[in-house]
Amino acid sequence: MNKNAPLLEAQTSFTLDLLREIINQKPEPFTCSPFSISVSLAILYAGARAETRDEIGRLLLSKFEIKEDRLHSYFVGLLKEFSSQDDKFCLDTANKVWIREGLTLLPSYLDLIDRTYNGNLQQADFEEREELCKEVNDWFKENTHNLIKEILTQEDVTEESMMFILNAIYFKGKWLHEFKAKATVEDDFKINTRKRKKVEYLRKSTATEHFNYCQDNDFQVLRMAYKGDRVACYVFLPKKILSANEILENLDGSRVFSLLRNTKNSKQAKHERYIEISYPKFEIESEHDLNKILPALGMESAFDPSKADFSGMTLWKELSLDKAVQKAYIKMDEEGTEAAAVTRTAPATGGSIDPAYWVEFSADHPFFYFIVHDPTMTILFAGIYT
Known about the structure:
Blueprint lengths: L4 H21 L4 E3 L1 H12 L4 H12 L6 H15 L6 E12 L6 H10 L4 E4 L4 H15 L19 E11 L11 E6 L5 E12 L4 E4 L3 E7 L5 E8 L5 H5 L4 H12 L9 E7 L1 E8 H7 L26 E10 L25 E5 L4 E7 L4 E8 L1
Parallel strand pairs: 2-3, 4-12, 10-13
Antiparallel strand pairs: 1-15, 2-4, 5-6, 6-10, 7-8, 8-9, 9-14, 11-12, 14-15
Helix pairs in contact: 1-8, 2-3
């Protein structure tokens, strides 16, 4: 059994909770990074105490009893793993906590952050708002390939501001098995049973051995790998047209993690010899106000100056979380792909194919997706397309 299985299931549960709450606040296509948020929460968890610590712990660990040092070593291992990528894909994460200059931080906390999270905590002069914003935004531009240019404004910095948690993530990968640009077609996307919109679809017909696939009573799940075969997009397509809320209604971390694992390890039945894929082409940049999302998920006291307890970080009793925000970007298209025929005839068969031998995966109605680092089964990105 994977020694990280409880943490992986807990992170999957957190991802589902996060998706549900984002949908409640803005029901539109979006992307987010549960991993990026989790790392920032782990940095706060290390300095939190009492109710504040318990609330963050319930978000990060779900129902599991996991020691704090195990949690930190888990994230440290992931950060090291992601920092040593090759040139087959680009994965950049940026996480940082900024604290007002003059606060005295406990040596034990500073040591932990330095040893485990590469010192991603910085004191700054909050009175110099313009300079602070420039410093923060320049740092984010550098860490997101200039895609996210502004994450902090001067209006965000007030006299009461003591601490910011800011995170951003960028991913770009080329498909391992390419889609042909000439095969892209425009067609209807069924937003619900009555409403339609026009979208461009990536299309491909190929042997199922090139794409992992599984299904249960409610979902088809497709794994589309990126070059290097270490990161993949897992698409969870309901067998019925459902709203975003309905898609997630009866899902829990255990079931979704099991589907992820089964899809990754799937071997196709003999009759499922070919798959026909139709998948929307899209580009999304999202901003999420975690000041609203995290309290709705039960993390309330960290944002309340009268209740927040970060006494493991500093002896100053009025420290609370002032602003938490995430911006995330994702793009899915044919870029970097090689020309290849995309038709409904099987490669190299020289004849017609019995329809029973086909798997049809047509993502023409609302679905959710994960971008997963397969060696660690870490959900880097998650989103819903509606």
